[in-house]
UniProtKB/TrEMBL annotation:
<feature type="domain" description="PilZ">
    <location>
        <begin position="103"/>
        <end position="207"/>
    </location>
</feature>
<dbReference type="InterPro" id="IPR009926">
    <property type="entry name" value="T3SS_YcgR_PilZN"/>
</dbReference>
<dbReference type="GO" id="GO:0035438">
    <property type="term" value="F:cyclic-di-GMP binding"/>
</dbReference>
<feature type="domain" description="Type III secretion system flagellar brake protein YcgR PilZN">
    <location>
        <begin position="11"/>
        <end position="95"/>
    </location>
</feature>
<dbReference type="Pfam" id="PF12945">
    <property type="entry name" value="PilZNR"/>
</dbReference>
<keyword id="KW-0547">Nucleotide-binding</keyword>
<keyword id="KW-0973">c-di-GMP</keyword>
<keyword id="KW-0975">Bacterial flagellum</keyword>
<dbReference type="InterPro" id="IPR012349">
    <property type="entry name" value="Split_barrel_FMN-bd"/>
</dbReference>
<dbReference type="Pfam" id="PF07238">
    <property type="entry name" value="PilZ"/>
</dbReference>
<dbReference type="InterPro" id="IPR009875">
    <property type="entry name" value="PilZ_domain"/>
</dbReference>
<protein>
    <recommendedName>
        <fullName>Flagellar brake protein</fullName>
    </recommendedName>
</protein>
Length: 212
């Protein structure tokens, strides 16, 4: 458990909002700011090009990844104020507590992410592949042909998108397994080096693709 202020979130922080009475889908939002003991200000989710219609007192659950504390976070709150000027935003009640849990490297997300695999001396060779199983610590990569073997070091680049924010992430990885299948092959990789900004984006991307 923690207080919202303890998360040390910055404006632009991606958030997922689950409004009571709507489908189980999580609507994307971005933190604009907050005032301790008063309210949290976030962007209004956009549905089919228009701001979502919301009512005062509507309950919701909020989920996010707080990079400063390396934790997945969730809390219950309600809509305090809805505004369309000068842009669509809402005020949420400040929660009494926030449930936090460190994101384990074993947590996996099912995705379909096109990536570039750089391999060979100085990573000078390149081919395209698909990640369909992703975690903070590694991934399963498939392609028609991957000229690598177990024990090889490779570099993976991909464009990730979380709540409208895009970033090209690059990570060095070690090939842990290689398996040939009919018409394709797959490798299991373990992530090694990446900079802090890429690590934060990867954490947020994995979290945003875990459903249930």
């Amino acid at each position: 458990m923690a207080r919202f202020e303890d998360l040390k979130l910055l404006p632009g922080q991606p958030m997922q909002l689950e409004f009571d009475g709507y489908s189980s889908e999580r609507d994307r939002s971005v933190l604009l700011g907050y005032r301790p003991n008063h309210s949290i200000i976030v962007t209004t989710p956009i549905i089919n090009g228009s701001p979502m219609t919301l009512k005062l007192g509507m309950g919701l659950a909020v989920r996010l990844f707080a990079p400063q504390v390396n934790s997945a976070c969730a809390f219950r709150t309600e809509v305090l104020h809805v505004s369309r000027a000068p842009y669509a935003h809402i005020h949420l009640a400040m929660p009494d507590t926030v449930v936090t849990g460190e994101v384990r490297k074993s947590v996996r997300a099912k995705v379909r992410l096109i990536v570039s695999i750089h391999h060979g001396p100085e990573f000078e060779r390149q081919c395209s592949a698909l990640i369909n199983d992703l975690s903070i610590g590694g991934a399963r990569v498939t392609a028609k042909h991957l000229p690598v073997a177990s024990g090889d070091h490779i570099r993976i680049s991909a464009q990730l998108e979380v709540s409208g924010v895009e970033r090209i992430v690059t990570v060095n990885a070690l090939v842990r397994s290689y398996q040939e299948e009919e018409g394709s092959c797959s490798i299991g990789v373990q992530f090694n080096e990446m900079n802090d900004a890429d690590r934060v984006m990867l954490h947020a991307y994995v979290l945003s693709n875990i459903h249930g």
